[in-house]
Amino acid sequence: MPTLRFQEKNIRAIARRYDYPIAERELIELKPIVYRRGFLEKHELQKIAYWKAPRSSGHITKNSEEYVREITHFALQAETEQARIRKA
User: How crowded is the C-beta side of 67, counted as CA atoms within 13 Å?
Assistant: First the structure.
């Protein structure tokens, strides 16, 4: 039988640690725009990366705008997951 490893009164405080500052709705609304355009802008990729993994999202800043556009264009056009991974 599972048991809590913390006091029940701390549930709300712990849950707040996992509250995403970017609403998933914002990202869902971005999807048709990106697909129509065919690539992500760097600031859009940063937003997605921050939503997915806040601690490592800063690595996006190392990439140029041109690289982000090119690699995301390829990823969105690729037919297979293997192609998306190998190109990146």
Answer: 7
- Tell me which residue of 29, 76, 20, 13 sits closest to 53, measured CA to CA: 20
CB neighbour list of residue 65: distance below 8 Å, 6 or more residues apart:
41, 42
Assess contact for 67 and 39: CB atoms under 8 A.
Answer: no
**Rounded to an integer, what distance in angstroms lies between the CA atom of residue 51 and that of residue 43?**
12
Question: Over the stretch 13-65, which tens digit does the pLDDT of each residue have?
Answer: 988 887 666 778 889 999 999 999 999 999 999 999 998 888 899 999 999 99
Specify if 72 maps to a domain.
Answer: yes
In terms of residue numbers, what domain contains 35?
22-87
Q: What's the predicted TM-score (pTM) here?
A: 0.69
